[in-house]
Design goal:
The structure is a single chain. By secondary structure, the protein is of the alpha/beta class. It has one domain. The protein contains 3 helices and 3 strands; from the N terminus they run H-E-H-E-H-E. It has a 3-stranded parallel beta sheet with strand order 1-2-3, with helices on both faces. Strand 1, helix 2 and strand 2 form a beta-alpha-beta unit. The longest helix has 19 residues. The protein is globular and about 40 Å long.
Length: 75
């Protein structure tokens, strides 16, 4: 899906739990996620820590979107 979005000229970030799969399918901007069962969170954290974790992940994704890249890049 990420490649299809980029094909029309929109940058996209692939948030994934298994980076080698993202590399194999050709995603350009790859952001490693937290864990397979909870890619964008951690249920063992407090509410405040969970919110901060998700905020940090999304800020990294926004940074990846605004970065100019020439090859596959892991953020």
């Amino acid at each position: 899906m990420v490649k299809a979005i980029e094909r029309v000229g929109l940058p996209a970030v692939h948030v994934c739990t298994i980076v080698p799969i993202s590399q194999t399918v050709g995603a350009n901007r790859i952001l490693p996620a937290v864990a397979i069962p909870y890619p964008t969170g951690n249920p063992e954290l407090s509410i405040e820590e969970e919110v901060q974790l998700r905020k940090d992940l999304m800020l990294r994704a926004l940074g990846a979107l605004s970065s100019k890249i020439n090859t596959q890049t892991i953020f």
